[in-house]
Design goal:
Elements lengths: L1 H20 L6 E3 L2 E3 L7 E3 L12 H5 L15 E5 L5 E5 L2 E2 L21 E3 L3
Antiparallel strand pairs: 1-2, 3-7, 4-5, 5-6
């Protein structure tokens, strides 16, 4: 009985460690665009440059950044940038990723083309 509990505990620890090592950007392609974990469309901002977000303060209230959690690791085209406030944000090919506050449900893309500077992020 003790051996079974030990095996279960070791397996759980191995899975937890593997999950942390394999952590990547919480995005996936859907209908030709990138979406976050809950299926909400992700966007890029033309004014972002050099792997730095130009959308802070009230801008970030309307365009919430796709935040990276502690322990997340960059992989492939996805990197993690540091925002002005020190928090971490996901980026694709150096372009920070954002949600649009007016998208109400998965699949909405109402921010695409907003002010000619916001665009859906594409895979």
């Amino acid at each position: 009985m003790k051996i079974n509990k030990l095996i279960v505990a070791l397996c759980a620890a191995a899975l937890a460690a593997g999950g942390a090592l394999a952590a990547g950007a919480p995005v996936k392609p859907m209908d030709g665009v990138l979406v976050g974990a809950k299926g909400m469309t992700l966007y890029t901002f033309d004014k972002d440059a050099g792997g730095k977000s130009a959308c802070n303060g009230p801008c970030a209230g309307n365009w919430p950044p796709l935040m990276a959690a502690a322990g997340d690791a960059a992989s492939g085209d996805f990197s993690i940038i540091t925002r002005d406030d020190g928090s971490k944000q996901w980026a694709q090919k150096g372009k920070p990723l954002y949600y649009w506050v007016k998208d109400a449900k998965p699949g909405d893309k109402t921010g695409d083309g907003f002010n000619n500077v916001w665009h859906v992020a594409k895979p």
